[in-house]
Amino acid sequence: MKHQTSATLFERAKQTIPGGVNSPVRAFKSVGCDPIFIDKAEGPYIFDADGNRYIDYVGSWGPMILGHCHPKVVEAIQQAAATGASFGAPTEREIILAEMVREAYPNMEKMRMVSSGTEATMSAIRLARGYTGRDKILKFDGCYHGHADSLLVKAGSGAATFGVPTSPGVPADFAKHTLTATYNDLEETKALVAANKGEIACIILEPIAGNMGCVIPRSGFLEGLRALCDAEGIVLIIDEVMTGFRVAFGGAQERFGVRGDLCCLGKIIGGGLPVGAFGGKKEIMDMLSPEGGVYQAGTLSGNPLAMTAGITTLSLLKQEGFYDQIEEKSAYLEAGLKAATAKYSGPTCFQRVGGMFCTYFQAGPVNSFADAARSDTDLFGKFFRQMLEGGVNLAPSQFEAGFMSIAHSQTDLDTTIAAAEKSFAAL
Ligand SMILES: *Cc1c(COP(=O)(O)O)cnc(C)c1O
What we know:
This protein is an alpha/beta fold. 36% of the residues lie in helices and 16% in strands. The chain is built from 14 helices and 16 strands. The strands form 4 sheets. The protein has a 7-stranded mixed β-sheet with strand order 4-12-11-10-9-5-8, sandwiched between helices. Strands 1-2-3-15 form a 4-stranded mixed β-sheet. Strand 1 (38-42) and strand 2 form a beta hairpin. Helix 13 (377-389) crosses helix 14 (410-425). The radius of gyration is 21 Å and the shape is globular. The model has no long low-confidence stretch (mean pLDDT 96). The structure holds pyridoxal-5'-phosphate. Residues 116-118, 121, 144-146, 206, 210-211, 239, 241-242, 266, 276 line the site of pyridoxal-5'-phosphate.
């Protein structure tokens, strides 16, 4: 490929940074080429170090729903920086953001700000364990909740009683407390809960699974989990780090009308700066230190620059019709991409909720990780490289969602669809 400077930077990065990247998927390993290094971004575009411009559907993996460098967000961060980057003491801005979040997620009666989605889910799980006095947790195969030890776990073989670590460095003793069920399989989940009666602290899930493409909850799945948790005294943790402020201002919980006991946010809530949040029922949240005994802390938690970026971003998202516009743009792209697949003889399946979507290289439908795993990842890699050549930046993995921003224009969408026609034709 023509990426001269990116190639040089990648070689140099590998000398000081493992794999040359600070987060694995950035290395492009699953799409068979070397990563592009980014120079700058603006609106719907990112520019690499080699001088190429791309229409961007990664959006920093979700946060940039306003497009890159929204002038109001840039200005707010600049002004905040001039009055202090960090105090390690409370500010009014933390309250303002918490109040804005609670308005959109009324079940987050109280919340804590943290600096990443990983911290939010890790803390929510500790809190659920402290609240229930139980050790086990239940997650779904293919859902990603950050990289805390107890979450890097896959289903064990056979009856799936014990979890098995997916990463060296995670003690089997930790993983055994994590049970894993099949996404969208309520009966299997119920059976797993029955087999571990009175032992499960929480069920955690992505309400739309965006870390295996875009897997939509079957009708009754979320409702069934809610009823199961109520019946068994289990804390339901809805991980909206990706879907929060993405599929609606009030996230998937607003969209589907099912509420968690605890909820995790991240990505968009920080407007591109590092922020996460977890919150829920007062009764549970008040168990956190210093009110209660469950310890949780952060030197940079509630950071003033990050709070400012979050407040400014959320106030722009609240504008009338914002999510209708995201829906309209995404539906237009969906129709165009589906039409473009006529240029290709193999099977594809497009799944979307609002401004998050995925094209799977298989017939579908995709309802679980086992389904997603049937995709032809080599073909996806080829498609990805063709699209990049055509000036379109997709997430560099079959198992990631694409994200629409408000800055994508009709011309950008048409250019994307034209590039997709060429890319499908070349497969
Ligand atoms: C991105 C993501 C996380 C982890 O957030 P980080 O900020 O990367 O630590 C957790 N849960 C979900 C659903 C995510 O998409």
